[in-house]
Design goal:
Elements: H1 3-15, H2 20-33, E1 55-62, E2 65-72, H3 75-88, H4 93-98, H5 103-106, H6 115-136
Antiparallel strand pairs: 1-2
Helix pairs in contact: 1-3, 2-3, 3-6
Length: 137
């Protein structure tokens, strides 16, 4: 499934909810469903800088595709990172680097986050793209 198709799927899912209280609940549920990562990845090395909460992110390159693993100590950031993992995992480094991630604006995520959480979202995307960039070379 392409990045655009995964983004469209997420937009459709979020359109089912009436208000942001329901959308936050859904985001929290998505975070709970995120597969657990190895405790060995919960180190300073994998911590995303710029997040109010602790968010750990790791990436591996397998057969030309990037696969992300992530976790957070807070529910909303964990839900956010689960969306990013869902959209960007199993894609080529080139696709990840060049994608704009339009679903974030389409579902209104950025405008419904506190400034610090919004900065954290930007930091998550940046780190994921940096991993992909490193895999390009």
């Amino acid at each position: 499934m392409s990045i655009a198709a995964k983004e469209a799927e997420i937009v459709e899912e979020f359109e089912m909810f009436e208000d942001w209280t329901e959308k936050y609940e859904y985001l929290i549920d998505l975070g709970r469903a995120l597969p657990l990562i190895d405790e060995g990845l919960k180190t300073e090395e994998y911590l995303i800088k710029g997040c109010q909460s602790q968010v750990w992110l790791n990436a591996e390159l397998k057969e030309g595709k990037v696969f992300y693993k992530a976790d957070s100590d807070a529910q909303i950031p964990k839900g956010i990172v689960s969306l990013l993992v869902r959209v960007l995992s199993d894609e080529s480094p080139n696709e990840i680097v060049k994608t704009e991630l339009s679903f974030i604006d389409q579902i209104g995520l950025k405008e419904h986050l506190s400034p610090t959480r919004s900065n954290g979202l930007v930091s998550m995307v940046k780190q994921m793209k940096l991993y992909a960039l490193a895999f390009q070379s």
